[in-house]
Write a structure and sequence with these properties.
The chain has 133 residues and is of the alpha+beta class. It has helices at residues 7-20, 49-62, 74-88, 119-132; strands spanning 27-30, 34-38, 44-48, 92-98, 101-108, 111-117.
Length: 133
């Protein structure tokens, strides 16, 4: 569904939606033609590319309107993990919120890797991202 280089923006937009619905216990799985998203409610939702594109457009319209946010948002977290996927040039992924942070499983050139990022690691990566901008 996403191509390397698009994960950061697509996941940030999805994260904004998840922030809006106050989702916790998040799981996002790339299933090729769609992403399956589950959180602390029964069931899951499938997002196809046109739905993610709509979330991206809504997120673009709202940029800069929120001011400083004291906490790490789901949008920021998923943006950081998307940047990792973009840098890896991953072909698929799964993200799961854990007690210790976020587990990111990715497939890169046919090889699967998994890393759990603590919230402190994610904050550092986010700071690095803003320094680069």
């Amino acid at each position: 569904m996403a191509q390397p280089g698009e994960y950061s923006d697509m996941l940030r937009a999805l994260g904004r939606f998840l922030d809006d619905v106050q989702a916790f216990g998040i799981e996002v799985i790339d299933q090729g033609e769609a992403w399956t998203v589950a959180w602390d409610r029964p069931g899951s939702m499938r997002f196809q590319v046109f739905e993610i594109d709509a979330l991206r457009e809504v997120a673009r319209m709202g940029r800069g309107l929120g001011g400083d946010m004291p906490r790490l948002t789901t949008s920021q977290i998923l943006r950081v993990l998307g940047t990792v996927l973009d840098e890896q040039e991953a072909s698929s992924f799964a993200i799961r919120e854990t007690d210790d942070g976020y587990s990111l499983a990715s497939t890169v050139k046919g090889k699967e890797t998994t890393h759990t990022y603590s919230l402190d690691e994610i904050r550092e990566l986010l700071d690095d991202l803003f320094r680069v901008r």
